[in-house]
Recover the amino acids of this structure.
């Protein structure tokens, strides 16, 4: 399986004055798993979007099997893609999303045969051994992880020769990641090829054959995965030495005695059952578990976004029970959800509007007047503090890289006088440099006494940052592990499964 199945010669793409890709050359072999890595904004997503036909190219050529390839007919050439940002339609059912844009095959005389389409969708999930959600259920009601698996099923439904994956792994929990890894090996054995983007350097080295590294839109190197190290990849990504040791250096719990938040017997039907824990000032309390364990439901419930059937969430510093998001917002609590674009930010709005939204009450003067000058000042200060790469505070958030979006998503809460901060997968889809920056902010918040809940699908993240870890399964807390000798991946995975 050594012959080239796909080639790129001299590909260029610009967005206004921004040169996203410069003279890209790439050759993909049959049965090859190729990693594509670089900092946020290095041009990775732009490149595979051109391959998939989502963007046109300014110049350059692409070839499949030695023949010229026009990306407008990517599906006809059996090239499919899973986008970094969610590519599902929330108000349509799962079955329709699997065949989105290709439902005509199930339509006769203008009538869609839903039964036939659901049957075909079920066959896709079964063929590729993917967990099957309820095919008639509305897509918008699914967890982000489930939605990603549906996108993967859609990409596989065309039986692709080339599969393009843009940051899918960081949306998945441990068990679904394992299914993805098995799928990649199955595709490889079938002679199919994969281009995979992930910011997890160790993961990329483990599951790929070769790695192409981009910096500022250019290819700066290609490596054989089995012959490289994480430090070598990181060094080529950023053009300088970068240490991977950006987690906490101490290996013991370290927080104040004062309880900031207490959750008692919290039950959300179908999601959480009898959840109880205390969160202390200056503590980072981690939550982890497999898919459907309930960890992501904890964040929503704590911030008042879920309606529990029993139990309570009590903010000790204010001696009050949190039942609604506005109560949490008005009483020094912040929440960074996993689904940044759909649940947190106003993507088409400006940087200024996104930075200032949680602080509108503080920015409001007499007669309910929100001062534009104060909004501008706050947004400007936070752009500088968070090192957001942008053209100015009035630039649309949609034009920013994932890392800069996440800086705004987190920074808009750090602009407030917080007591409790809930972080759900705060480093999803960001590069190693932005990860290090976010971990630094978490350490600073800890020193300031802010109580943090860290929910994560990344075991290395919770091991690296948490004082205590609550492992969940089937909506229940199954074990508490404190920072120390038992804080290892092996010990945690044994509890998780």
């Amino acid at each position: 399986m050594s012959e080239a199945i796909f080639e790129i010669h001299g590909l260029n793409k610009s967005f206004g004055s921004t040169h996203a890709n410069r003279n890209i050359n790439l050759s993909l072999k049959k049965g090859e798993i190729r990693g594509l890595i670089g900092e946020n904004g290095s041009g990775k997503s732009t490149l595979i979007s051109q391959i998939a036909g989502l963007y046109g190219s300014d110049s350059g050529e692409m070839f499949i099997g030695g023949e010229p390839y026009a990306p407008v007919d990517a599906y006809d050439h059996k090239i499919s893609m899973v986008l970094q940002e969610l590519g599902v339609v929330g108000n349509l059912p799962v079955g329709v999303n699997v065949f989105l844009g290709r439902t005509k095959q199930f339509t006769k005389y203008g009538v869609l045969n839903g039964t036939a389409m659901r049957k075909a969708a079920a066959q896709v999930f079964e063929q590729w051994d993917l967990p099957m959600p309820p095919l008639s259920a509305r897509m918008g009601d699914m967890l982000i992880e489930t939605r990603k698996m549906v996108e993967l099923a859609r990409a596989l439904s065309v039986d692709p020769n080339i599969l393009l994956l843009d940051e899918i792994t960081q949306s998945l929990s441990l068990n679904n990641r394992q299914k993805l890894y098995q799928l990649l090996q199955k595709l490889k054995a079938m002679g199919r090829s994969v281009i995979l983007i992930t910011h997890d350097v160790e993961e990329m080295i483990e599951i790929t054959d070769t790695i192409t590294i981009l910096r500022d839109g250019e290819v700066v190197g290609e490596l054989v995965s089995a012959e490289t190290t994480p430090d070598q990849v990181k060094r080529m990504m950023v053009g300088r030495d970068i240490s991977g040791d950006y987690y906490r250096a101490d290996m013991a719990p370290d927080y104040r005695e004062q309880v900031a938040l207490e959750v008692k017997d919290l039950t959300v039907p179908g999601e959480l059952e009898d959840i109880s824990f205390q969160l202390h000032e200056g503590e980072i309390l981690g939550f982890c578990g497999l898919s459907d364990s309930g960890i992501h439901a904890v964040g929503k419930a704590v911030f008042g976004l879920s309606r529990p059937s029993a139990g309570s969430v009590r903010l000790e510093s204010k001696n009050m029970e949190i039942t609604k998001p506005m109560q949490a917002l008005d009483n020094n609590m912040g929440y960074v959800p996993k689904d940044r674009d759909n649940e947190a930010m106003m993507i088409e709005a400006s940087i200024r509007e996104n930075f200032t939204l949680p602080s509108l009450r503080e920015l409001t003067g007499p007669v309910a007047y929100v001062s534009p000058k104060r909004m501008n000042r706050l947004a400007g200060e936070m752009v500088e503090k968070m090192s957001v790469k942008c053209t100015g505070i009035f630039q649309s958030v949609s034009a920013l890289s994932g890392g800069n979006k996440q800086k705004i998503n987190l920074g808009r809460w750090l602009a407030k006088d917080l007591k409790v901060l809930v972080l759900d997968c705060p480093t999803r889809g960001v590069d190693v440099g932005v990860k290090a920056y976010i971990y630094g902010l978490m350490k600073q918040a800890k020193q300031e006494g802010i109580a943090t809940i860290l929910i994560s699908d990344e075991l290395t993240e919770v091991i690296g940052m948490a004082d205590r870890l609550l492992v969940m399964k089937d909506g229940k807390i199954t074990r508490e592990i404190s920072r120390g000798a038992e804080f290892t991946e092996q010990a945690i995975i044994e509890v998780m499964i």
